[in-house]
Amino acid sequence: MYLKKALWLSISVLTLLTFSGCMKHDMAGMSGADHSKHQAMMNKKNYDRSVETYQIPDVMMTDHEGRKVSMAELMDTDKPVVVNFLYATCTTICPLLSMGYIDLQRDLKDKTEEVLLISVTIDPEHDSPEVLNNYRKRFNGKPGWVLLTGSRLDVEKITKGFNTFFADKMDHEPLNFIKLPAKNRWVRLNGMLSGADFIHELEMAGVR
Q1: CA-CA distance, 143 to 112, in Å (whole number)?
Q2: For residue range 107-130, what is the model confidence (pLDDT) as tens digits?
Q3: How far apart are CA 185 and CA 112, in angstroms?
Q4: Beta partners for 99?
Q5: 116-135-164-192 Cα dihedral, nearest 10 degrees
Q6: Rounded CA separation 130/64 (Å)
Q7: Which residues are registered as beta bridge partners of 63?
Q8: What is the phi/psi pair of residue 121, to 5°?
Q9: Cα dist. 69→82, 94, 138 in Å?
Q10: What is the CATH number for 124?
Q11: Is the pTM of this model over 0.90?
Q12: Among positive and negative, which fits the CA dihedral 15, 129, 201, 174?
């Protein structure tokens, strides 16, 4: 059902090249940014997998269309849910995480809304709803992928709810969280997954 590893990787590379071109203007003031930690994470060959229990905080966020969204209500669904953390000006880890979402949506075809994909920005001071909406458009995101921003305090409540902490947006881990059918049970994936790895984990968690 899903795209094969080689196709996933080739599309990811193509998207990264296209995305990098689109980001030249956005990154104009960030040429000196240190992406060395991101690069080290990308070079890591394996990923860590665990099953965890999380308590999602009941905070109000704003989605990429400017609508107010309750995080707790958004998560209270029978749909499969996948969560990650990113920021719009990232040119290393985040585009690859987003490509995992896009590959899944491509495979779902006209059923993209049957799986809830959530991306929470860790750079809310920059990532307004408009910025996130433009980010989603660059990847040709479909209905079912929701990008969220909010106050710094509320973003930190969410990251802590998922038992993670980003001291610096340039030092964030490549994380995917896949919700299992049991209440508040999640598969936590830490590391850069290949296309085949991501597909396997989604299938194991029942995301079809």
Answers
A1: 6
A2: 889 999 999 999 999 999 999 999
A3: 23
A4: none
A5: 90
A6: 6
A7: 148
A8: -70, 145
A9: 17, 23, 23
A10: 3.40.30.10
A11: no
A12: positive
Give the distance from CA 84 to its chain's centroid. Answer: 3
Q: Which residue has the tokens 């994936």?
A: 189
Question: What residues have CB less than 8 Å from 81, skipping those under 6 apart?
Answer: 75, 115, 116, 117, 118, 178, 179
Residue 182 burial (CB count, 10 A)? 9
Is there a domain that residue 43 lies in? no
Residue holding tokens 């001071």?
Answer: 125
Do residues 144 and 117 touch, judged by C-beta distance below 8 A? yes
Span 24-48, pLDDT tens digits? 434 444 444 444 444 444 445 589 9
Q: Give the count of alpha carbons within 13 A of 104, CB side only.
A: 29
Question: How many structural domains is the chain composed of?
Answer: 1
* Alpha-carbon gap, residue 191 to 23, rounded angstroms: 24
* Domain ranges, residue 98: 5-26+48-204
Burial of residue 21 (number of CB atoms within 10 Å: 0-12, 13-18, 19+):
exposed
